[in-house]
Amino acid sequence: MYNKILIANRGEIAIRVIRACRELGIKTVAVYSTADADALHVRLADEAICIGAAPTKESYLKIPSLIAATEVSGAEAIHPGYGFLSEDANFVEKCTASGINFIGPSAEIIQKMGDKVYARKMAKKAGCPITPGTGSAIEKADELFAEAKKIGYPVILKAAAGGGGRGMRIVYSKGSLLNAFETAKAEAGGAFNDDAIFMEKYIEKPRHVEVQLLGDKHGNVIVVSDRDCSIQRRNQKLIEEAPAFGLSDKTRAELWSAATRVAKQVGYFSAGTIEFLLTPDNQFYFMEMNTRLQVEHCVSELVSGVDIVKEMIHVAAGGKLHYTQDDIKIKGHAIECRINAENPDTFIPSPGKITEYHAPSGFGVRVDSAAYQGWSIPPYYDSMVAKVIVHDESRTKAIDKMLSCLSEFIIDGVQVNIRLHRRILHDLAFRKGEIDTSFLSVLLK
Questions:
Q1: How far apart are CA 222 and CA 178, in angstroms?
Q2: According to the model, what pLDDT value does residue 193 have?
Q3: How far apart are CA 296 and CA 227, in angstroms?
Q4: Does residue 154 have a cis peptide bond before it, meaning omega lies within 30 degrees of 0?
Q5: Would you place residue 423 in the very low, low, confident or very high pLDDT band (cuts 50, 70, 90)?
């Protein structure tokens, strides 16, 4: 096991890793930009090193500074958290070349599964259902129209190297296909330095269901839980639940089996997630694999009793998973709400000083946050300031508990989206589980 770990991240996820390390008796090193000098993760770590100016390219994305900080501090490993460099194969290679252990999968796995076309091929090879689509990136216009005709409208164009909705366009007819392709291609090139675009059949009104996996370097892979992440705005998740509600035992077993086969097909280890689209008739299709810790890992932890971050550290150090699949027993229901510092109507970010802060607590309540009274939220980074996670015996009870928590949560000085969460949780269709990925856009019309 390690003596010291550097956390190449900030905010609540940096604190999450610090807490896991403390329980394991591992010292921690925080890194921070000049804008984060007063951040909570800096205060809670055993050591802290400034790695640059506020812009991410000059700090949290600056690989030489992170490698240097690790070497100076004497840390043996880096935990990337999520976002930033967590799925950057080049960063993993630089860590390995410097004799630093990366707490996550290998550079090869990250690179290959980050290519959405390759990932689809691996899923198909593993016997996992995939939507009809192109087997490679589309290069020419005539190929574009021929493939769309073969697949059938509507189709969806996706960036092969992308995520988060960038480089993605839905096309309902031939007339708008070329313009959508050129726009998606340009957007993908700007966002990912890779303009490769592929095409899939667009599944209308699906649920977004995903499977949380853990694997080790000895060939063991387990499912921790499944989740529903259908409440999204512009492909950004807002509310997540575990387990995914309404699945039959048969569908759940098939879903878990498919996800496990894909992970084993590529020799996966560490924490990872397979994302699926689920149709109204419970047919699921592989969407992509996230080769990192997810923001919403907390709900899986609460229903399974597995500390995913601790397992990541243990696996990276060469250990075998502490659990077999038979050890995983899903208990109750968990819900997570992402609390963002933004206008709840316009969604414009609301950075600034928090003048009053009180987080909810109680039985079955967890708040992962780096916020505190008097802290100024910098304008340079993601607007999420807290995750409220609740656990109870049933989905209905978990919803009611979350509403109680949100009523107790006080954040003044900045605008937050708590009012939007309450509106969703009170909605009758949501409470009945009648949701899909279009739910929020329909609600906000």
A1: 42
A2: 85
A3: 9
A4: yes
A5: very high
Residues in the chain: 445
The tens digit of pLDDT for each residue in 298-326 reads 999 999 999 999 999 999 999 999 999 99
Of the candidates 329, 295, 297, the residue with the CA atom closest to the CA atom of residue 310: 297
What lies within 8 Å, CB to CB, of 212 at 6+ separation is 223, 224, 225, 226, 227, 242, 271, 273, 294, 297, 300, 308
Q: From CA 210, how far away is CA 263, in angstroms rounded? A: 13
What was the pLDDT predicted at 217?
98
Helix, strand, coil percentages in the chain from 3-state DSSP, rounded to 5: 35, 25, 40
Query: In the numeric block, which tokens belong to residue 160?
Result: 């092969």
The residues, any chain, with a CB within 8 Å of residue 114's CB and separated by 6 or more, are 87, 89, 161, 291
| Segment 150-167, tens digit of pLDDT | 999 999 999 998 777 788
Please give the share of the chain, as a percent, with pLDDT higher than 70: 100
Q: Cβ contacts of residue 371 below 8 Å, gap of 6+?
A: 40, 354, 357, 377, 385, 386, 411
The number of beta carbons lying within 10 Å of the beta carbon of residue 263 is 27
Distance CA 420, CA 174 (A): 37
* Spatial contact of 12 and 37, defined as CB atoms under 8 Å apart: no
- Give the C-alpha separation, 169 to 176, whole Å: 10
Establish whether 292 is a catalytic residue.
Answer: yes
Beta strands in 142-298 (DSSP E): 155-159, 169-171, 197-201, 207-215, 221-233, 236-242, 270-278, 284-290
pLDDT value of position 142: 87
Q: How far apart are CA 30 and CA 14, in angstroms?
A: 8
Whether the model pTM is above 0.90: yes
Predicted confidence band of residue 241 (pLDDT cuts 50, 70, 90): very high
pLDDT score for 37: 98
* Burial environment of residue 332 by CB neighbours within 10 A (0 to 12, 13 to 18, 19 or more): middle
Q: What distance in Å separates the CA atoms of residue 435 and residue 399, rounded to the nearest whole number? A: 15
Q: Rounded distance, CA 77 to CA 101, Å?
A: 4
Query: Is residue 395 within 8 Å of residue 387, measured between CB atoms?
Result: no
388/368 Cα distance (integer angstroms): 7
Catalytic residue selected from 10, 292, 338, 366: 292
